[in-house]
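Work Package 3 (structural annotation) set out to generate three-dimensional models for the target panel prioritized at the project kickoff. During this period the team completed the workflow that converts sequence records into discrete structure tokens, so that structures can be stored uniformly alongside our sequence database. As a representative example, we reproduce one entry of 81 residues exactly as it appears in the project archive.
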Amino acid sequence: MSVKNSFRGQGVGKALLATLLEWATEHPFIEKVCLEVVADNTNAIRLYQKFGFVEEGVKKNAAKIDDKTYWDLLLMARFVN
């Protein structure tokens, strides 16, 4: 998910994540919600941790931004059922 800069810090991401997890919990065939997040996006990581997500691994240099810039991605997940 992504929240436009001008809407960050207003609870939009929290509401989206809460809605997703509520929906996933109501569907017993969904056992686990997984996500990837840019490793230096500390605000997003903190939000996911507050919702019970834990780090499962790292994808090194997974996103190429330009000829010299790569981002690591954290793999995070939470069991819902």
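The chain is about 30% helix and 40% strand.
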